[in-house]
Amino acid sequence: MTHYLDVQARLGGEFIHPGARDLTEVLLSRAQLRPTDQALEIGGGTGATAVLLAQRTDARVHLLERSGLMLAAAQERFCAHSLSAQVTATQADAGSAWPFAAAGFQLVYAESVVALLDVQHVLAEAVRVLRPGGRLIMNERVWKAEISQSEVNRVNTFSRRVYGIPAATDRALDGGAWLQLMRDAGLVDLSAEAVTALLPAERWRAPLARRFNRLRRYARHPDLMWQVWRAKWQNHRYGALFANLESFLFTARKPT
């Protein structure tokens, strides 16, 4: 089976994270950017969130992405929205040193990416590249409290086999442990909000235009359809395996 994220890259997949587009809207509402600011998205995928952020704030947005397929899809999206001069993308592994100077960004954000990496490393790099007073926002899936390490290993092994990526961190880090790591990294004004509490009381189906665009993307790649539906079937069949996971929107600030 092709890597699940490679399938999504070829399909131009959008908002592949807890809470989907609804939580991206919450994240954007917390951005607090001015046109003169710069923002950095970690693992930006096909660039859907970066485009929205650039359009709504007029700030410069930089995207860091490891996958060449994702990067190509993102560049295509930026061109389609005439944003190639405002939104830039760099191919690099966020698990290594980031190719950016210190204190250059007012905002660093990620959507379901940091849990797949070394959290401490990502936090250290985020603090390094943030300007004093800059903000960090992360929408991440974490383990529930008191889960055993053996269960973490079992779920992650399954997730890697089926999707090519772990379900969450290799260590049994719950929301409180994430906050402590953020505190240890020197961040202040910490908060962790449950994604379920941030979603609309009634989540309506995606607007017709958005659903049409998704179907159009699928029609362009009929060879991938079986893999998309296979992943959906796996989610339905093995959903109970992921019962020990929950999602939080983490926010923090670098001290001034």
Task: Characterize the structure shown.
The chain has 256 residues and is α/β, with parallel strands linked by helices. The protein has a single domain, classed as 3-Layer(aba) Sandwich (Rossmann fold). It is 42% helix and 21% strand. The chain contains 10 helices and 7 strands. It has a 7-stranded mixed β-sheet with strand order 3-2-1-4-5-7-6, sandwiched between helices. Strand 2, helix 4 and strand 3 form a beta-alpha-beta unit. Helix 1 packs parallel to helix 4 (68-80). The chain is globular.
In a nutshell, what does this entry contain?
The chain is of the alpha/beta class. Helices cover 42% and strands 21% of the residues.
Which strand order does the major sheet show? Answer: 3-2-1-4-5-7-6
> What is the residue-averaged pLDDT?
89
Largest sheet: 7 strands, mixed
Query: How many separate structural domains?
Result: 1
CATH superfamily: Vaccinia Virus protein VP39
Name of the level-1 CATH class: Alpha Beta
- Secondary structure: helix percent: 40-55%
Q: What is the level-2 CATH architecture name? A: 3-Layer(aba) Sandwich
Order of helices and strands: HHEHEHEEHEHHEHHHE
Separation, N- and C-terminal Cα atoms: 48 Å
CATH fold title: Rossmann fold
Instruction: Give the beta-strand count.
Output: 7
Characterize the overall form: globular
What is the strand content? 15-25%
Give me the secondary-structure category: alpha/beta
- Cα gyration radius (Å): 18 Å
**Count of alpha and pi helical runs:** 10
